[in-house]
Design the sequence.
DNA sequence: GCCGTTTTCGGCCCGACTGTTTTCAGTCG
């Protein structure tokens, strides 16, 4: 059973407990555990069977037993029991924004509302207002939320590549406005998460109302609330909610820190603060003894006041960064400027849109020192089928171009399919002629985790394979990762000296930050690649760097932050002419 | 239900907003 399914089961049970009026900290414990399990790079089902799932922060003996029961019986016994009391459909009702567990339970017990359809009928017939404490506004909200849900589901998350450029454009406009002083992007976009649901902007301004009005009148705004001196709220034409908050300069650091989050990071930070007699909020840091409030101009001051060094936004996920900060063990994170080359891109030879020469020129314009050309082996329908002869001619072309260039290395490579049996798409002698080989899976996704893992392991055992491409094949928001035993992959990568790629395509981000952290901690060499299919998408390197930073990686853990010479030395096979 | 450089028991973040209330509970981020 996948981590996501275990997490869903615990999360459902949390809601059932909540409906039942359980201690709210117990409910919180189930939700926390669900999140930790969902994000774990390890197979939690196996850990629970071995009795070692308790090493996950937030999972104790009780939850471990419930996971084992879930595996054995298909459902947690407490869930089965509670479902006799509350229909499972009530869990859906609690997902309506504005309707929580308490309200749902009353609607069920006093009006017999069990499903979303029941809820709509009751709101239509104005029966909700007959309950004490609930009125016409609640009915109005319920109907509005149900309509919205019918359209597209609740507040869709979007890829950061869709959201961040809009955030940057809005921030740039506001910065250029004469009324503005400081404008920063906050929220998940600043932390570099895979998806975002909205945009948070934090600003200080000489004339706050004018700056707020500038956002409300921005051409990207389809709807705007009333701009005031505290800020403004708009929705863009493509439906992204944007919140601008304007604050006095003296508390800019507090507000930026608060709205950058994450929620988990902030909770842990406040817990730490309380132990030091300090209470943290977006307005400042209060000494709980004296009541004295300290306001901070910068985030660094916020952290300093709590006795911590500055914590980079990408690390603020509540996954150990606060204790690392206390110990002075925060990593020095890799930056985009550290990246010296891109080892995965495509051209018109397979399914790319630009020529070899165009891709090289674009890489040089990015001030890289090297670029690997890695068209698909294409036995399975990626654009043109790159035959062995075509690949041989390509190798010659690449080498000829490389000889012409000074201070830049063009690398003759290929992204070779791994067949279901673990064999590769080209003959060994041809693979040996290549300077760089990425092995990837593009077909037969639905095989067992064991067979998929064996497939990768066979490829890593091949002497010509330098790197594994987009390990799990996931496409964020649209395709689940395929089942693969990441621990075994990591072990084999270490043993054979095979590198693992972080694919920077914003749809992939694969390795995920969780897998990348696991692999790098084990000592596997990581490569940041874009898998670009046109010159523009070489710029996706920024998303790869975001994943690397969220995986706590420093430049020295990433192979392509060094010169071509040093990169070359890190490959498992020493090649001629390298 | 989890967890421990102030605790193996007694804690477990903070504030804003909303709708319905005359002081607050529920919900949310």
Sequence:
């Amino acid at each position: 059973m996948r981590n996501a399914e275990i997490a869903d089961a615990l999360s459902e049970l949390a809601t059932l407990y909540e409906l039942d009026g359980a201690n709210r900290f117990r409910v919180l414990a189930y939700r926390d555990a669900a999140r930790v399990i969902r994000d774990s790079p390890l197979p939690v089902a196996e850990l629970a069977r071995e009795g070692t799932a308790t090493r996950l922060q937030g999972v104790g003996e009780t939850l471990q037993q419930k996971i084992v029961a879930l595996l054995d019986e298909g459902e947690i016994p407490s869930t089965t029991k509670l479902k006799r009391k509350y229909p499972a459909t009530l869990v859906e009702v609690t997902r309506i924004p504005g309707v929580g567990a308490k309200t749902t339970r009353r609607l069920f017990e006093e009006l017999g509302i069990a499903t979303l359809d029941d809820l709509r009928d009751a709101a239509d017939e104005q029966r909700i207002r007959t309950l004490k404490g609930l009125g016409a506004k609640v009915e109005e909200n319920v109907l509005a939320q149900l309509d919205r849900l019918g359209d597209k589901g609740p507040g869709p998350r979007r890829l950061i590549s869709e959201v961040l450029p809009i955030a940057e454009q809005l921030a740039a406009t506001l910065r250029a406005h004469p009324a503005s002083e400081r404008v920063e992007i906050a929220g998940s976009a600043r932390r570099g998460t895979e998806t975002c649901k909205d945009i948070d902007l934090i600003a200080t301004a000489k004339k706050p109302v004018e700056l707020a009005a500038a956002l409300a009148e921005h051409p990207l705004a389809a709807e705007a609330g009333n701009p005031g001196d505290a800020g403004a709220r708009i929705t863009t034409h493509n439906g992204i909610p944007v919140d601008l908050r304007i604050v006095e300069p003296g508390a800019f650091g507090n507000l930026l820190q608060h709205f950058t989050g994450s929620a988990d990071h902030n909770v842990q930070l406040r817990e730490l603060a309380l132990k030091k007699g300090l209470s943290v909020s977006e307005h400042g840091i209060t000494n709980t003894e004296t009541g004295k409030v300290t306001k901070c101009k910068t985030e660094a001051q916020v952290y300093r006041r709590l006795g911590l060094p500055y914590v980079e936004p990408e690390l603020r996920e509540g996954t150990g960064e606060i204790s690392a900060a206390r110990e002075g063990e925060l990593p020095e994170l890799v930056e985009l400027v550290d990246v010296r080359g891109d080892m995965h891109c495509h051209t018109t030879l397979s399914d790319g849109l630009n020529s070899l020469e165009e891709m090289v020129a674009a890489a040089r314009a990015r001030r890289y020192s090297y670029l690997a050309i890695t068209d698909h082996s294409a036995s399975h329908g990626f654009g043109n089928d790159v035959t062995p002869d075509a690949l041989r001619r390509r190798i010659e072309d690449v080498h000829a171009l490389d000889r012409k260039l000074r201070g830049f290395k063009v690398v003759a490579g290929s992204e070779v399919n791994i067949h279901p049996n673990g064999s590769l798409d080209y003959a060994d002698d041809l693979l040996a002629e290549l300077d760089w080989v990425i092995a990837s899976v593009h077909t037969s996704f639905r095989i067992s985790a064991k067979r998929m893992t064996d497939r990768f392991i066979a490829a890593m055992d091949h002497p010509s394979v330098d790197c594994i491409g987009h390990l799990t094949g996931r496409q964020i928001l649209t395709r689940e990762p395929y089942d693969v035993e990441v621990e075994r992959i990591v072990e084999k990568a270490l043993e054979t000296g095979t590198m693992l790629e972080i694919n920077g395509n914003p749809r992939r981000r694969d390795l995920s930050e969780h897998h990348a952290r696991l692999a790098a901690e084990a000592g596997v060499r990581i490569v940041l690649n874009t898998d670009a299919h046109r010159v523009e998408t070489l710029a996706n390197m920024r998303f790869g760097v975001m994943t690397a930073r969220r995986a706590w990686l420093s430049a020295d853990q990433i192979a392509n932050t060094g010169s071509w010479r040093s990169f070359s030395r890190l490959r498992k096979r020493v090649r001629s002419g390298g």
